[in-house]
Design goal:
By secondary structure, this protein is α/β, with parallel strands linked by helices. It folds into two domains: 1-48, no CATH class; 63-194, no CATH class. It contains eight helices and six strands. Helix 3 (72-82) crosses helix 4 (102-112).
Length: 200
């Protein structure tokens, strides 16, 4: 098993007050957190933007977790930067796909649910996930299409990036409620991993 690779510039304006301290960073807090959790030896950290690391990346990826720039361009670049290294049967997941951000839901619906390169897919709370199945992803097309129809209804509400208010916010919440969400059953997941391909 390889390490968990964490890529973050640690300069989020949401978490830090750059007016009071232009050089502030959350990196020390990050190191303290993984040390307190006892996982420091299993985490490889990069204080960098994902695009800079992606351009030099060569290693295989089994789980690609995308949770950074939630704009459409940011989520799309994160996905395309690392997806070429995702191994077959690996998993890609987007955080905040069911929160009011333009990037994660659109990239998930367009690039993943619309692709026969992916098999099982779903939502767990705000997390969108899919398994990379380049050999038999077409066999999951109907399931992905059904999920895509509901998930894609969220895109018009969030694509501008503007904060939702009033009736638009209520309509967004109703559309989000209609997106199927469920936890992953380990037995079902295991059966997907070992089920032989059906003859074409």
């Amino acid at each position: 098993m390889g390490p968990v690779v964490a890529i973050d510039p640690h300069n989020s304006p949401i978490l830090l007050d750059h007016h009071a301290d232009p050089g502030s960073s959350s990196y020390k807090d990050f190191l303290n957190s993984i040390h307190a959790a006892g996982v420091s030896n299993h985490v490889e950290s990069h204080v960098a933007y994902s695009a800079d690391v992606a351009s030099l990346w060569k290693r295989p990826i089994r789980v690609l977790w995308i949770d950074g720039d939630h704009s459409y361009e940011g989520a799309k670049n994160d996905f395309h930067g690392f997806f070429p290294h995702l191994v077959p049967h690996g998993v890609v997941a987007f955080h905040d796909a069911l929160n009011a951000f333009p990037g994660p839901i659109r990239v998930f619906a367009e690039e993943i649910l619309g692709s026969d390169g992916f098999g099982p897919a779903g939502f767990v709370h705000s997390i969108a996930w899919a398994q990379f199945r380049p050999e038999d992803g077409h066999e999951f097309r109907l399931r992905r299409s059904s999920l895509s129809r509901r998930a894609s209804r969220l895109i018009p509400f969030v694509e501008s990036g503007a904060e939702l208010h009033g009736i638009a916010k209520r309509r967004y919440k109703l559309s989000r409620f209609l997106v199927p969400q469920s936890s992953i059953n380990p037995k079902d997941w295991a059966s997907l991993m070992v089920t032989p391909r059906r003859p074409r």
